[in-house]
Write a structure and sequence with these properties.
By secondary structure, this protein is of the alpha/beta class. The chain has 11 helices and 12 strands. The structure holds S-adenosyl-L-homocysteine (SAH).
């Protein structure tokens, strides 16, 4: 729902100021439309229905995984694709993964979103409408900004949306914003955000040479500066920054690199999440522009084996760096991390997508 348009519409009608809050409360609690907002007059409900679309996004496709994960492809009013994912866990946790941009201008070599054309920043309403869509299906308690896009390139809109999530049941402590380490936005985040929103850093390599190879953004903002900024956040908030580290076979997964990573991060300020890589070669036909081959041999990336991930983890544990291995959800519907490229593929081709 475009909240500015809502406000304008109510004001033009001469409605009292509290109407906006009434409409928002219904919406945030998952009302299916204006129709059920019983403390508004029928005339007002009809007028809102005509003047303020209930969502700024339309649902194009929605797929549900065997594990209960739901992935939805939306379109903005001007036709840009946006994807979001709902993950449901056995312990009852319901976690959202939201997009901050349609596409992404950064070209991390292993990421499907980085290979599609960049569209634009999403508005706060478009970000919130992803969450509201799922709120109409179920209660929610966690949210990560780990869908399409780089949140720190669209920080104001991301924060405006994040600040409303508690109305949907998602507290700031259960909200995580993830970044490649885009320093201007990251600095602002550390300086200006008073709410206890969690920070995650997508690092993927402990030294600049390797990181630049897999994440071109590192040429602009080298590791030392980015890690220092994250450490500043950990110290200011007394909460660990999560480090995301996607495990790429033969690229960044040796025990030696694990030791380097432990040395870089130390014991006190970070927690490492090792992410099994979701290979997406099956998605290449759907992406807009070809990329330079990511590895020297020109082959596509492959995910590290369980043994390699286990050995990497062991090195971090030995150095007393907190570490977990991330579960991969929704693999059968290509809803796993980094697979939110726009074009949904027909069911018959799913078997061709290699599991990472
Ligand atoms: N731009 C932000 C937000 C996107 S988060 C960021 O990079 O942090 C997306 C997360 O999924 C990042 O940690 C990214 O490195 C990871 N990712 C991307 N592609 C992936 C893939 N194919 N398999 C596993 N993780 C992937």
């Amino acid at each position: 729902m475009d909240l500015d348009l809502l406000e304008r519409t109510l004001r033009e009608r001469g409605e009292p100021a509290f109407r906006r809050r009434q409409v928002w409360e219904w919406t945030a609690r998952g009302a299916p439309g204006y129709d059920g907002m019983t403390n508004l007059s029928r005339a007002l409900r009809e007028e809102l229905d005509a003047a303020v679309p209930y969502s700024t996004l339309s649902v194009e496709t929605e797929r549900e995984s065997r594990d209960g994960t739901v992935k939805t492809l939306f379109r903005t009013g001007d036709g840009h694709p946006v994807e979001a994912v709902l993950m449901r866990y056995r312990d009852g946790r319901r976690s959202l993964c939201l997009s901050s941009q349609s596409g992404c201008p950064l070209t991390c070599t292993f990421c499907a979103t980085g290979a599609m054309a960049f569209g634009r920043n999403l508005t706060a309403s478009e970000i919130l409408d992803q969450a509201l869509h799922f709120r109409r299906l179920t209660e929610l308690d966690h949210c990560v900004f780990m869908g399409m896009g780089e949140p720190m390139l669209n920080l104001d809109e991301v924060l405006a949306a994040a600040r409303r999530l508690p109305d949907l049941g998602i507290t700031h402590r259960r909200t995580t914003i993830s970044t490649v380490g885009w320093l201007p936005g990251l600095r602002r985040f550390v300086d200006e955000v008073a709410e206890p929103i969690r920070l995650a850093l997508s690092l993927h390599a402990p030294d600049d040479g390797l990181r630049s190879r897999i994440m071109p953004v590192n040429e602009r903002f080298p590791i030392a500066d980015v890690v220092a900024e994250c450490r500043r956040h950990a110290e200011a908030t007394n909460r660990r920054v999560f480090v995301e580290y996607v495990m790429l076979a033969g690229v960044n997964d040796t025990p030696e690199l694990a030791r380097k990573l432990a040395e870089l991060l130390g014991r006190d300020h970070f927690k490492v999440n090792l992410i099994p890589y979701n290979a997406w070669a099956g998605g290449q036909a759907a992406v807009a522009r070809p990329k330079t081959p990511p590895t020297a041999a020109g082959a596509l990336y492959e995910g590290s084996s369980r043994e390699r991930i286990g050995a990497f983890r062991h090195e971090l544990e030995r150095a007393r760096v907190p570490v977990t291995v991330r579960l991969t959800r929704g693999r059968d519907i290509e809803a796993a991390c980094g697979q939110l490229a726009a074009a949904p593929r027909p069911r018959g081709r799913q078997a061709a997508v290699p599991a990472g």
